[in-house]
Automatic annotation (TrEMBL):
Residues 44-265 form the DUF1996 domain. It comes from Tremella mesenterica. The lineage of its organism: Eukaryota, Fungi, Dikarya, Basidiomycota, Agaricomycotina. Coiled coil: none annotated. This is DUF1996 domain-containing protein. Residues 1-20 form the signal peptide. Keywords: Signal. Residues 364-477 are annotated as: Disordered. InterPro entries: DUF1996 (IPR018535).
């Protein structure tokens, strides 16, 4: 715990001048990319490549988002909904819906999302950049139970903003006047070889400590990567009623929140940020980090997807959730809709991959990783051409999501090899939040001015659609 306290204290000193501590945290970069929403659509290029995904996702980031993820194509995106123009990564999570008393459901607006790029590492570990083609996920769209000792469960949580109370592993039992914040903390140890393995098995949580600590990486996944932490802010100012919130998966309890990431930073750029060290330990103050400062933008909310791949009303009011997603949770088990037939199709054939990670390759290896020394300053990958196709083993486990109930479970991902996971899940958070500099906390997240009429009718009639939003929840991490 001393480590955790030290960590927070050092970061507290950062705003002034950091000393490099024994864990190097004083010089480690730490920044947050903020996003306006990009699209809500039944696509998932990781779990349901080239098809229609089982449930609706809310997607932010690069406009090249589509039915497949191809690093080279991601770099051609016309825009990004991020506040960093060169970050063409995509970040997605399930779409939140609201059950109405008359039996209809409608989409709940994402106000904005934050992605924390955190450095959490053990003594002696060096953080390696995400290679081109890298993708990962955390969480399980089918999870119906909660085990706080399991990092894949503990990594999913909620903060109810605008009221006091602890964070919770399930939906809060009240409405959240200043947004419901759904949170996911990604595994941060990598096998150093694969850009993807079925069930995201190429990444793992630390083998020591908490899911969000900096405990040692397991031998199976020895390479330390940045710790990604998503905060998805959904409008939640409604007259609370149990069961009114429902994820696109059909889950009314909240355990099925999950999150996906596809790497879309320019090849080598993360290393440039790492090399800036403490200058980029800025949390929200991206303008103080030179490699990011030169690429900031405030018009991410104007970004739209380059291509409309699917025609489906996912906004509503709808008679039921899109896809084969009967509602479940509490005493209601997850079931399939009887005789469900998927009728939604892609508007045009999915593109072919250009980077060697073909549609049916479950694992795409890269030249990065095991062969390069962990602290080498070389670019993460010489080029996308170095990515080779790997055997398509296990592909069936990732392709089942294209027709509703078959979505693969990520429950088996990344079990730590040690059982030393503590029961307190967020020891460093409070110290961190106290220590951050509120002056750096203004994010310019442009929220699209047009929003669906179906979702702008808030029950409390509050003003919505602010063009710029000041962070109220500064510095949770
Ligand atoms: C059901 O309620 C929603 C939310 O109030 C409303 O938008 C929708 O029009 C209603 N639908 C019907 C068929 O009454
Ligand atoms: C909870 O998770 C821990 C760590 O993964 C595991 O060892 C334990 O068996 C799980 N408990 C249950 C009841 O599944
Ligand atoms: C769902 O996928 C299975 C296996 O790929 C296939 O046999 C079945 O026809 C699909 N069902 C629908 C409704 O598309």
């Amino acid at each position: 715990m001393l480590v955790k306290l030290l960590f927070g204290t050092l970061y507290g000193a950062l705003a002034v001048k950091a000393d490099a501590g024994p864990y190097g945290v004083g010089t480690d970069p730490f920044w947050v990319v903020s996003h306006a929403p990009l699209t809500s659509v039944r696509l998932d290029p990781i779990v349901s490549p080239a098809g229609i995904s089982g449930h609706t996702h809310q997607v932010v980031g690069g406009s090249a988002f589509g039915p497949v993820y191809d690093y080279a194509a991601s770099q051609q995106a016309k825009c990004t909904s991020a506040n960093v123009a060169i970050d063409k990564s995509n970040y997605w999570a399930p779409q939140l819906y609201r059950n109405h008393p008359n039996g209809t459901v409608s989409l709940v607006k994402l106000t904005y999302a934050n992605t924390y790029y955190l450095t959490r590492k053990a003594d002696g570990e060096t953080v390696v950049p995400f290679p081109p083609g890298f993708r990962m996920l955390v969480g399980d769209p089918n999870r119906q139970t909660y085990n706080e000792s399991d990092p894949t469960n503990a990594a999913i949580s909620y903060a109810c903003l605008g009221v006091s109370g602890p964070e919770t592993p399930a939906f809060p039992t009240q409405s959240c006047p200043s947004n419901l914040r759904a949170q996911a903390f990604f595994p941060h140890c990598w096998d150093g070889i694969n850009n993807w393995l079925p069930n995201s098995a190429h990444v793992a949580f630390s083998s020591e400590g908490n899911y969000n600590g900096g405990g040692k990486c397991p031998d199976s996944h020895p390479k330390r990567i940045m710790s990604l932490f998503y905060e998805w802010h959904y409008e939640d100012d409604f007259e609370y009623e149990a069961g009114a919130r429902v994820w696109a998966t059909g889950d009314t309890v909240g355990y099925s929140f999950h999150a996906d990431f596809t790497m879309g930073w320019p090849d080598g750029y993360m290393q440039t940020i790492f090399d800036a060290g403490e200058n980029c330990a800025v949390e929200f103050g991206l303008n103080k980090c030179p490699p990011l400062a030169s690429h900031l933008q405030s018009n991410g909310g104007d970004c739209v997807v380059d291509k409309n791949w699917v025609d489906e009303d996912v906004v509503g009011p709808l008679s039921k959730l899109p896809g084969n997603n009967a509602e479940w949770g509490g005493s209601t088990p997850k079931t399939s809709i009887p005789n469900y037939v998927e009728t939604v199709k892609l508007n045009s054939p999915a593109p072919t991959y250009t980077d060697g990670c073909s549609l049916d390759s479950a694992a795409c290896s890269t030249s990065v990783g095991s062969s390069s020394p962990p602290n080498s300053a070389t670019s993460p990958s010489s080029s996308t051409s170095s990515i080779s196709s790997a055997p398509a083993s296990g592909v069936s486990s990732i392709s089942g999501g294209s027709n509703g109930s078959g979505s693969s479970s990520a429950a088996s991902i990344s079990k730590p090899t040690s059982s030393s996971i503590g029961s307190t899940s967020t020891p460093s958070k409070s110290s961190m939040s106290k220590s951050t500099n509120p002056g750096g906390g203004e994010t310019l997240v442009a929220v699209p001015s047009s929003s669906s009429s179906a979702i702008s009718k808030g029950s409390c009639g509050r003003k919505r659609g602010m063009k710029r939003r000041r962070r109220r929840d500064n510095g949770q991490y």
